[in-house]
Amino acid sequence: MISTSTARQVLKDAYGLDAELTPLYGELDDNFLAVTGNGEKRILKIMHDGCKEQRVDLQCQAMAHLAGTAAQLNLPRVIPTKAGQLYTVVPVDGGDRVVWSLIFCPGTLLADFAPHSDEVMRSFGRTMGLVDVGLASFTHPAMGQGHQWELTRAAASRSLVQHLAGDVARQVDSVLQRFENVTAERLERLPHSVIHNDANDDNVLVNVTEDGRGVVDGLIDFGDITYQPTVCEVAIALAYAILDKDDPLTVCARFLQAYNEIRPLSGDELAVLYDLIMTRLAVSIAIAAARRIEDPDDPYNSASEDSAIRALSLLADYSPRVAECQFRQACSLPVTENAEAATRYIQSNELNRSEVIRTGGGSIVLDLSKNSDLLGSDPCDLELERLAALIDGAIGEAGASFGFGRYAEPRALYNNENFGATDQASGCRTVHLGIDVFCPADTPVYAPLDARVELLANNNRELDYGPMLVLRHTTDAGEPFFTLYGHLSSRCLDTLEVGQELTAGDQIAAVGRPPENGNWPPHLHLQLILDLLDLDADFPGVATASQQELWCALSPSPACFFQEFDPTELRY
Q: How do residues 514-545 score in pLDDT, each as one tens digit?
């Protein structure tokens, strides 16, 4: 790094300004905070030897463009030299250096600001949306020159995996291989533009409003600016936004809600976003490992490596299709492409339905919620026999033969490790995604619609589905949707076959008894599913409160199969 005294002289010569200088970190340049006698602040940038003028001109022109298209943001502005130029070239320490200067942008780096509230994440999304819309009309001769940090070049980082070891190496290589084999080709068809390309938490500025709220309103360091698929900007920002977060999909959703209001994202862009976030994290880990070997004494080379490794591992535990659904929902798109058509068909009055369970003996709706008077003050501690006695007692007292457990009901009954967070999202799974029918063991269960057997399984962990099956149905237009039946007698696993065609009204199973039914009081769990999302027998029947909106969109109420009830009675 050049000395402060040399930099101070450069500032005088090029800008006619005397100021106190404080060195700042720079990867490709020597940076200084300059403070004049009257307190004015600016940034002096002296590029390293070999820097191409075109790269600096690209940054300067982009920031000048944003001064007109995104003037409301707290962005760097170029300060002209004494000669009125955006930058100049001067001899420094025996070499020619490109020199330029920017106004100082006030604020706290996102990396140093806490907490990262939902509002902060939304303002982050809004700011990046404004930047991308502002740059959409910008072009420059140097915008396609490219460099290592472009996501479209991610496959090149596979050569750096040799510097990693164990599970981290395998995971990073797997992500980069998927990018090379699948994602890269999909990017070619997406909208492209000039993007900032490095919205990491050390480049994002937060300021506090008059009423004390922290909001992201600025972005610095345009050194990685380039021409890429615009969705890469979103992926890069989110890869850093989720660092050290326990519920990454919810963080992404808050960002996307606001970004999408400014620059709407297409379904095709959202379909690759999860892979791109994973790719950015993998590239960051690989490059950090290589740089640490080259320069082990530079702490910047691995500043966020541990956080990136944890984020990559946490994100990998999600199904990519679940992530896509949450992204679509955040951007006000149907949760799946066929969701609206399938829902209309299912709710159609013309749909020929058959009874799933013939409840002619009378039935009641049970309160099994966290605040249930029926279950008492601590439903978590109810053993099977006591729970069964309470349910049977309530049904008998009402003079009924069947008891219904409600859809979307928050329950405290799910009290073992099976109901830790779905895909490691924050919190336990408590929100019931189906309708329960409590009835005697061996009660017949019938196909409500024409169907084909999609899968058969025995999820025999404690409090799981036990023997279960999923039926595949289709709309008039051929769009698939599914019904799931849990806590069955194991006999159906022998009497049915995957691919078997069924007619509405065919008996498909019988209600199981404990312990083979997951060790529950005898009942049928019926769940409507718009898309299995490749989760198959692991499709959850209970959701976390934070992701209730997502999972209820994927599994709408199956009350349409119990026409003797007002659907609102069967929903919490």
A: 999 999 999 999 999 999 999 999 999 999 98
